[in-house]
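Subject: sequence -> structure tokens, single chain

Hey, anyone have a minute? Need the predicted structure for the following. Not urgent.
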Amino acid sequence: MNITLKIWRQANPEDAGAMHEYQVHNVSEDSSFLEMLDILNEELFEAGEEPIAFDSDCREGICGQCGVVINGVAHGPEVTTTCQLHMRSFNDGDTITIEPWRATAFPIIQDLVVDRSALDRIIQAGGYISVNTGAAPDAHATPVPKQNADRAFEAAACIGCGACVAACPNASAMLFTSAKVTHLNMLPQGQPENLMRVKNMLNQHDAEGFGTCTNIGECAAVCPKQIPLDVISTLNRQLGKAVLKGV
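Reply:
Had a minute. Here:
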């Protein structure tokens, strides 16, 4: 495959940045999208040019480290992580536009790399549990209703890649925040602080500069782990309880 790439290049946070065009030749359709970028970077390095900076780690769709906007869609045309996207999803001769996540809360560091530490701070705002567990209990010592366990497991699948923020017209991180709240609050260990956790995490969400959720649904549409949109409803119910109880 011969591909034309239009890639956002930005040397540092203060740089204005601009789109640059590159040609990549003889790319196998079985190559992953990131392997295609590796091939381009090898060519740039050999030509004495600065390689394109992008995030990646496990390249197995687990860590959530990778993520770019491809032809206007977070993670590209398939509902998966960028590292699990393959070039067979494109055609020979295609022009592909590649940009970083665009959000005030995700400042660009260089090229396609953005600072997503705002998501870490939202989790940190949730705090810890205060239950004295003592020694490690048996796995079946605390019964958990299957419905709650399944719901918590579903929400825990969130890998924090930030695609929901990149896809949202408001740059909201509500799907991420709701997934973390739902995961923690559906299990017995998370019950004592559940209302305070919701309030603190939402306050941190707003303080980081993320936008307001208007239930458009673009976040769930691009989520590589298929976090359902209704986790936001779960968070809103918990928030309502916190307000009524004056937490």
